[in-house]
Amino acid sequence: MDHIFQQYRLTDKDFENFSALIFAKTGIHLKPEKKELLNARLGKRLRACRLGSFKDYYERVVHDATGNELVHLINCVSTNFTSFFRENSHFDYLADTVLPQFAARGGSAGPCRVWSAACSSGEEPYTLAMVIARFMARHPAFRASILATDISTKVLDIAEKGIYSFDKIDKVPGEFLKNFFQKGMGKCSGYVKVKDELRRLVTFQHINLMDSFPWNEEMDVIFCRNVMIYFTRETQMELAEKFYRCLAPGGYLFIGHSESLTSINHRFQQTATTVYQKVK
Q: Which one, out of 24, 36, 41, 267, has a CA that is 20 to 30 A from the CA of 278?
């Protein structure tokens, strides 16, 4: 049979195997109602690999010593909905409360280190960069850097290019559009590109939040929004503790508006809606 036209069916056993593997590697808990979604997303990969069954694909993933196929699997299951200025109150709080606090400590403390811990296709870190760039323009002594990471290599490629269609920038204020985006012409009509001055504030890196963080420097601000809702309570608790240890004293953690730390044990102090601080 030509596998290009084959219809695949994910059995309950297949779903259990992939769910266990995905949880072990990423911390993402797939509920049973996600079976059809997984069937559709992985089916495309099976056709690309010209494999005959989900069992064959599972064997390929677990026996691939390079880890490349696991990356493809993770790219398939990652949820990557995002937008510029999503949950905008967080960026207002950052500009009005958090950044002035760090600016007041002076340059001796070094640049403010901001981490977009699930950056998807780049809208969040570039929004952070716009807010921070405007703040730096008003406070010339203030310096900051942004680390943007994601588990999906596919969305990181999009983020690094910094090219977006017009429909993606409808929430970007006119001031920021003018200052930080270049309008495409000719064959690039209908698209904008993030200007180099903004891109230089952001460093992109592939990171799995379940792994040890590959740096020693403490962060001042962490945005990890709409991620923990996919984790079990135990994994949420582990990640919250990792973020706490990663933050400098006085640092802030922002989580999604649909999330909360109230149901887990943690050491943060809440300072605003879905905003938490590591108290000194």
A: 24
> Can you give the residue range of the structural domain that contains 66?
3-77
Let me know whether 34 and 119 are in one domain. Answer: no
Q: Could you tell me if residue 84 is inside a domain?
A: no
For residues 55-69, give the mean pLDDT.
91
d(CA 94, CA 164): 24
φ, ψ of residue 144 to 5 degrees: the values are -155, 160
> What are the pLDDT digits (tens) for 47-61?
888 888 999 999 999
Residue 176's nearest CA partner among 188, 186, 164, 158 is 164
With a threshold of 0.85, does the pTM exceed it?
A: yes
What kind and span of H or E run contains 26?
helix 12-26
* Active site amino acids: 41, 150
Question: How many Å separate Cα 269 from the centre of its chain?
Answer: 23
Alpha helices in 64-122 (DSSP H): 68-77, 89-93, 99-104
The pLDDT > 70 percentage for the chain reads 96
Do 220 and 242 share a domain, yes or no?
yes
Position 4 pLDDT exceeds 90: no
- Judge contact between 222 and 251, C-beta under 8 A: yes
- Distance from C-alpha of 85 to C-alpha of 13, rounded to nearest angstrom: 41
pLDDT for res 272: 96
Q: Rounded to an integer, what distance in angstroms lies between the CA atom of residue 143 and that of residue 106? A: 10
Average pLDDT, the chain: 91
The amino acid at 245: R
Please check whether residue 212 lies inside any domain of the structure: yes
Helix (H, G, I), strand (E, B) or coil at 31: coil
Both 161 and 200 in a single domain? yes
